[in-house]
Design goal:
The chain is mainly α and about 375 residues long. The chain contains 21 helices and no strands.
């Protein structure tokens, strides 16, 4: 047994030597084989990641990404090797950044086809996790590389690319210093559109928007976007996605808190009915609480930013009237959907809470 283990270790040692030599000094065919070997070794054994990084393979793989000719397997293999080296290793991710990957992205983008760009999204996703650890990372090259992918006439639909791209944006948004760059790049509208069209992208997309909403620029960008509130109301209707409902409810509250006009628009597109249903039979306690508070909020007309006093009072009266009509019109249908005597009691409690509850300001 010990002899077999020793033989295996010797084989891996020789494989590492060949891979490092081929990567540094070999022709493109040898570099391809070396990158594949490095990928496989790093995937199997975490200790090999440290050893390979110490042997200087990361800068060579980054250079390989940029210098390789389009059409071969070099870029894909280099990217896959870097992903495996980065997975679970903060140090290796920092080394990849220090090797100039981000500064080389514009050059890489100009000479890379769509399929290769998609193959690089897992690597950028891995690197972007540095932002969650508050490691300073320049978001502009990543945004310039990824956002055109989402803006293309045929945006990616495969799960890996969509998840990698949207989660990368989420990771970057966890650093508030990146918010301005993300907003300026037009990511708010792109994310809202993705949330509506691609359910796979909804949760990371909404989570990114929630992070952006922590800044004044983010709140304003979300509030002023043409897809709000319709997209957020549509997401609230997806009862199979409770986390997405929670995030959509939070963003609706952010928008409603700032804009009387948006509150009126929410009512017009059916938010009252949706909130009543979610408040009664929502799958998470948090989304039920947020729905009930939103109903009371809309009914009371509170917490909006004050504009012209006469317009605000008039709008509040309209909203209260529309909410009351919606409550009366939809109570029986929601009772039927909830079903049973117990549900009737819950629905009665909900209506009491929405219509007769004392004024209370909701704090985000």
């Amino acid at each position: 047994m010990k002899k077999a283990e020793t033989a295996t270790e010797e084989e891996e040692y020789l494989a590492i030597r060949r891979a490092v030599k081929g990567l540094h000094f070999g022709r493109w065919e040898e570099k391809e084989a070396a990158a594949a070997t490095i990928r496989d070794l790093a995937k199997r054994d975490a200790s090999k990641k440290r050893a390979l990084a110490e042997l200087g393979v990361i800068p060579s793989l980054v250079s390989m990404l940029v210098e390789a000719k389009e059409g071969g397997a070099c870029r894909r293999l280099a990217s896959e090797a870097l992903v495996e080296l980065a997975n679970g290793s903060f140090t290796n991710k920092v080394l990849i950044v220090d090797s100039g990957l981000l500064t080389k992205l514009p050059q890489l983008h100009s000479k890379t086809n769509l399929s290769t760009i998609q193959s690089l999204t897992p690597l950028l996703h891995s690197i972007s996790s540095l932002a969650k650890a508050q490691f300073p990372i320049n978001s502009l090259p990543i945004l310039s590389f990824l956002l055109p992918l989402l803006r293309s006439p045929s945006p990616p639909t495969d799960t890996t690319t969509l998840t990698s791209t949207t989660t990368t944006l989420y990771n970057l948004s966890t650093q508030l210093d990146n918010s301005k760059s993300i907003i300026s790049a037009g990511a708010v509208h792109l994310l809202l559109n993705l949330c509506f069209l691609q359910t796979k992208a909804t949760e990371p997309g909404l989570a990114t928007l929630a992070n952006l909403a922590l800044t004044e620029e983010g709140k304003r960008a979300i509030e002023e976007d043409s897809l709000v509130p319709e997209v957020l109301v549509a997401v609230m209707a997806r009862d199979e996605e409770p986390k997405c409902q929670e995030l959509a409810a939070y963003l609706l509250m952010v928008v409603a808190r700032r804009s009387v006009e948006k509150r009126r628009r929410m009512v017009e597109v059916g938010v009252v009915e949706m909130l009543m249903e979610v408040g009664l039979i929502g799958r998470s306690r948090l989304v039920r609480e947020r729905a009930i508070r939103m109903l009371r909020w809309l009914k009371d007309g509170r917490n909006g930013e004050m504009e012209e006093e006469g317009d605000v009072k008039s709008c509040r009266r309209e909203i209260r009237c529309m909410v009351k009509q919606s409550l009366d019109r939809n109570m029986e249908s929601i009772l039927r959907r909830g079903g049973g005597k117990k549900k009737k009691k819950n629905c009665s409690d909900l209506r009491d809470y929405c219509v007769r509850a004392p004024d209370t300001a909701y704090r985000l």
